[in-house]
């Protein structure tokens, strides 16, 4: 039997105190990684790290991904605790849904900054470390909303589409340095946020899914593990949809 897929690797995951990010962190630990949980809520990050097994395998660090200094500090904390980053997962995100008519400029800027600038900060800062070692994997979380557009999400759809373009451009820049950069586009994933949707909206989305069910956070985590590990060693600049076949 082969060993764990991420044995002794240092993985940094933003927005990992809950939801998809926490599911990724949990699976990475199970596959032998030492994980740094980055989150805007430092207390929640510390609590998540404790749930993952404590300081031997995980630490929590407060990080505002829109601040390059915070991202530098996050990666420095990872290096200090476990060694230089081997895997970077840019997962942090927020929603500020509203139609264009009612969306404020602040709501637009907030979403663009967290998703797009935050992913850019995480990608460029991690890549700078990885290229020196000629190895590393970066996984960026986009969304189906960045492929098809969603009503009330001109900010979110724009940011998530931008992450795809950024991933491909960065992948081209870093491929000859041994650094792979890929993206995931989840569809309707069962979480506290999606389960708070009005029933009508939930039913409408479900009707668009050939597999006739919502996805689970663990199913996104499995794809993140694949892209982070040697299983995907000849893949870079790809976008993997985890959608149950929605909008094929």
TrEMBL record:
For this UniProt record, the keywords arranged alphabetically read as follows: Oxidoreductase
- SUPFAM superfamilies (UniProt xref): NAD(P)-binding Rossmann-fold domains
Q: What class of enzyme is it?
A: oxidoreductase
Q: Which residues form the Ketoreductase domain?
A: 9-192
Please give the biological process terms from Gene Ontology that the record holds: fatty acid elongation
Annotated signal peptide = none
The protein's GO terms of the molecular function aspect are: 3-oxoacyl-[acyl-carrier-protein] reductase (NADPH) activity
> In the Enzyme Commission scheme, what number(s) does this protein have?
1.1.1.100
Q: Which Pfam families match?
A: adh_short_C2 (PF13561)
**Does this entry carry the keyword Coiled coil?**
no
PANTHER family assigned: 3-OXOACYL-[ACYL-CARRIER-PROTEIN] REDUCTASE, CHLOROPLASTIC, SHORT-CHAIN DEHYDROGENASES/REDUCTASES FAMILY MEMBER
Q: Write out the similarity annotation.
A: Belongs to the short-chain dehydrogenases/reductases (SDR) family.
Name of the protein: 3-oxoacyl-ACP reductase FabG
Tell me the organism: Gordonia desulfuricans
């Amino acid at each position: 039997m082969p060993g764990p897929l991420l044995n002794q690797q240092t993985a940094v995951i933003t927005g990992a105190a809950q939801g998809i990010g926490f599911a990724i962190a949990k699976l990475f630990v199970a596959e032998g990684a030492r994980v740094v949980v980055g989150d805007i809520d430092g207390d929640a990050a510390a609590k998540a790290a404790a749930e993952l097994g404590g300081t031997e395998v995980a630490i929590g660090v407060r990080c505002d991904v829109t601040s390059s200094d915070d991202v530098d500090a996050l990666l420095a904390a990872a290096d200090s605790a476990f060694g230089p980053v081997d895997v970077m997962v840019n997962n942090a995100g927020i929603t500020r849904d509203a139609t264009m008519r009612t969306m404020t400029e602040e709501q637009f800027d907030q979403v663009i900054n967290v998703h797009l600038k935050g992913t850019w900060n995480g990608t460029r800062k991690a890549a700078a470390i990885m290229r020196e070692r000629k190895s590393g994997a970066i996984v960026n979380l986009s969304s189906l909303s960045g492929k098809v557009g969603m009503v009330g999400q001109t900010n979110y759809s724009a940011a998530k589409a931008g992450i795809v373009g950024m991933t491909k451009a960065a992948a081209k820049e870093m491929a000859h340095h041994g650094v792979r950069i890929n993206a995931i586009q989840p569809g309707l994933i069962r979480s506290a946020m999606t389960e708070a949707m009005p029933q009508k909206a939930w039913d409408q989305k479900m009707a668009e899914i050939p597999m006739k069910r919502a996805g689970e956070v663990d199913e996104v985590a499995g794809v993140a593990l694949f892209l982070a590990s040697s299983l995907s060693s000849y893949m870079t600049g790809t976008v993997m949809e985890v959608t149950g076949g929605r909008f094929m």
